[in-house]
Each structure stands twice: as structure tokens, then as C-alpha cells.
Amino acid sequence: MSLQQFINEAISPWLKEEAEDNDIVLSSRIRLARNFKEYPFPIVADEKTLEKVLDVFADHFAEHSLGKNANLELVRMSQLEPIEKRVLVEKHLISPSLAENQKTGAALISEDEQVSVMINEEDHIRIQLYQPGFQLEGALDYASKLDDWLEEKISYAFDENRGYLTSCPTNVGTGMRASVMMHLPALVITQQMNQIIPAINQLGLVVRGIYGEGSEALGNLFQISNQITLGKSEEDIVEDLKSVVKQLIEQERNARQRLMKNSAIQLEDKIFRSYGILANSRIIQSKEASKCLSDVRLGIDLGLIQNVSKTILNELMILTQPGFLQQYAKKGLTPEERDVKRATLIRERLNLEQE
Fold this sequence. Notes:
Elements lengths: L2 H8 L14 E10 L12 H14 L12 E4 L5 H9 L5 H5 L5 E4 L5 E5 L5 E8 L3 H16 L6 E2 L3 E2 L11 E8 L1 H5 L3 H10 L2 E4 L12 E6 L7 H29 L1 H17 L5 H16 L10 H8 L2 H8 L5 H20 L1
Antiparallel strand pairs: 1-5, 1-8, 2-3, 3-4, 4-5, 6-7, 8-10, 9-10
Keywords: Allosteric enzyme, ATP-binding, Kinase, Nucleotide-binding, Transferase
GO cellular component, one term: extracellular space
Pfam families: ATP-gua_Ptrans
């Protein structure tokens, strides 16, 4: 397989679409937690019960379509190799927890990978809907339609006073997590993120790394999401998040302008040094690669680097993860071998831009 073929197959089609504010907001996501009314929740259910949950999806939803998302495929964790599951985690289509559920875990994934319904994770159902750029309202609208479609065949665990019932009390109510993935390099460079994160937390929102709870903000990528699901409507949660995200977008753009005005030569040096490392390294670890990719993406957004696509951060942040590197190599790799393969793939990817 050529690198170009590998990129085309590895990157979710929706990630390539142009969208509002996608120089800073890479993606918007709505996640809904739901459970079957008649079955114990996964944390206490036996294997036979969880198989019944899986049968509902196999019988009623697999190979069906909703809107533009055709051919929803049921992917069972028991049928995947460890590297294949790791790739799905790296693409945010399943969680690490679901990947570990070897017997009854599964996911219903749309052809364009915009929709992913995780089955028998912490809850019976975790609906995920992605949109490129800053499109929270569009994501919510589509997720709600998907939710209604599933409810035609499934009776949800619901309480008139508490809302949707979930395994974790923090998800009770709407059962919704709304989030955006943001690239905020200028706020990191100017050391403003250290003050911004506590302020965001006080507003009932949380700031995490690229892979959610407990993960590091690699490549200056931050996931901003709601913490409160009870006592607010889905629309109110989205509006609160939108308000904060709009302020972050403005602050990031202002920080970029100040850097260009006050420290232009230092910023250019930082960006082009990172480009040089990516273009010439023979060995590179994931943390250094993420940092350099963030710098290059900033250079592209500021017009300093003109011959590289701005989708390169989206692509290479995924393609250089351990699962994808091993998939591309078609074999297991040691950490040292992955560092060599990562450097090679990045150089090849940059060379494609010059062709």
C-alpha cells in the first residue's frame, strides 16, 4: 500500500471537510449515554444479558442507514486483532474501555466514520457524532436524530425527574457530553493556558487532552467539554460550551497576532526549526513529533508556510500513533522501531506536499 492510499483509508472522510473556525477548532462531538430499560447496566450485567443487547443491534441496525450515513457496520471486539482495536481507539471511534471488552463489546460505525455507537461499554449504548470544525449545534441535531432512530426499537432507562439513567452518576440527566477539539498553540506559548484552564473549570466545563480524561494535551490540542448533565437541557449545555469556545477562539487569535507583532522572528525560527526536524529526522518520538506538528500547523495558519496542507496536523497526529504505525508496517514494532517508522512516515508525507 502506498502512503497516499494509507492516508486516504486512515483519515475519516469527515475530517477532510472545510468548516467554520477549523483553523482553531478541529472537530465538534456530541456523545449520548443510554441504557436499556429492561436489562441490568453493564457494570453488573452477566454475559448472557449483554449478548442480548448486542443481538438487538445486529438484528435491527447493522447494515442499515440513517441520512447520509449508509452501511452502518457492526464491529465486534472479539473479531479484531489488538492492533486493529488500537487503531479504532486512536481514531476516537471506540474507547480504551470498550477495546478491553473482548466478549460482548462492539461498535456500530458509519461508512464515513462520523457516527460511532459503542455497545456494552460503561453503558449499554454510547452514541458519538462528529462534525468538522465548530459545529456543535449541527452535531447535536444529528445526534438527536440518531438517538430517536435507535429509540424506535429500544426502550431507554429513563426517570421523569432524573432524566436518562446511566452507570456513572455524573452522566445522569441528559446523558450528554458535548466537546470540541481545539488547537491552542499561541495560548500555550504565551503561557495563558495555565490561567485559562482553572477559569474554565469554574464554569462547569473541563479541559482534557486529545484522548479525553487522563490524557496529555499533545500537540497543543485540548478537548473542552461539559461536566454537568443534570438540570440543564441539551441546548443549554451546547450554548454554554459555545460561549466559552468563542472566547477561546478570540483569545487564541489575539495571542497569535501579538506573537507576530512582538516576536515575529522568534516565532518564525521556532516554526521553521520544527519543520526542519520533521522534514529531516530519522528517529522521532511521539511527544516531539506532536510538538513540531503543532508548530508547523501554526505556521500554515499564519501564512508563514505556504506549501503544506493545513490538514497535516489532523492526519499526522493520528497516523503517527503506535497502532497506525504498526498497521502501516503490517507487523508489531518495538518502541524504537516505531520512532524510526514515525520519522520515515512524516518525511514521506511532507514530500507528498512537494509533488
